[in-house]
Amino acid sequence: MTDLAVPSPRNERTGVMLMLVGIGLFSIVNAAIKELSAQVSITQIIVFRNFAALIPIVMMAGTMGGLRVLKPSRFGPQVVQALLFFLTLYGYFFAYKLMPITDATAISFAQPLIVVALSAPFLGERVSAAQWTAVLMGLAGVLLMVGPSGESLNVGALCAVAGTLASAISMLQLRRMTATDPSIAILFWTMAISGAAALPLLAVGWVTPTPWQVAALVATGIACGILQYLTTLALHHASVAAIAPTRYTGIVWALAIDVAWFAVTPSPAVLLGAAVVIAAAVLVLRREES
């Protein structure tokens, strides 16, 4: 998503710094979502988050030529992308609610590995033996984390896996869509449609929020919209290869937030599994660069 109207010239160091800041702030927003999930329903969080995020997105569109930039070439793919995003949010937000942020973040690092595994059947791309080895290695790391507390079934971990799978498929869909649609339009319709899809579920587990909770929900949504632009701006300044490794700084933020905010220390199994998944993802990245 690199076609937004952004300042020039490009500067790789600026891009990397923007992404590092974006990852850190997104980690804090995720912690706020975990905090809110104990007070209101996940559906309420998604609806407020997505519709509030439209505010900065529409403002950005106004600086790029007006609302006409939000018109998609085809509406069908926008719906598919939005529904995948809908599943991604539910998976990750339930994971944040049910397990430490470090655990959910570590499992999410398997996303690029799933993208590689699915790129052959979805996009017809060739996957090398080395890439398949990295995928299997990453799967082993995820299996280490799925039951971090030693339980035979960890619902939070399964939610994180489901969210990661939906996110990977969404990424493949996005590769196709960016060839015909501006990323600001994709971002707008993804937020709008996925938010609308959650509306019928609001009655399930509804909790009347306090004015403070409403303010927090809206602020979370606006922050997500701004941070989405910030990370897109980073991709304008620097290559994907330069930025991709910064994604793994998220585990440092997650660890710090779990310890300082929620007084939770991740298990050795989670830390070991995260290390295995990160190593596998780095192998895939290096293979794609060569």
UniProtKB/TrEMBL annotation:
It is found in: Membrane. InterPro entries: EamA_dom, EmrE-like. The chain crosses the membrane at residues 16-33, 45-67, 79-98, 104-123, 130-147, 153-172, 184-208, 214-235, 247-263. Keywords: Membrane, Transmembrane, Transmembrane helix. GO terms for cellular component: membrane. SUPFAM superfamilies: Multidrug resistance efflux transporter EmrE. Residues 14-146, 156-285 form the EamA domain. It is a multi-pass membrane protein. Belongs to the drug/metabolite transporter (DMT) superfamily. 10 TMS drug/metabolite exporter (DME) (TC 2.A.7.3) family. This is EamA domain-containing protein. It comes from Prosthecodimorpha hirschii. The lineage of its organism: Bacteria, Pseudomonadati, Pseudomonadota, Alphaproteobacteria, Hyphomicrobiales.
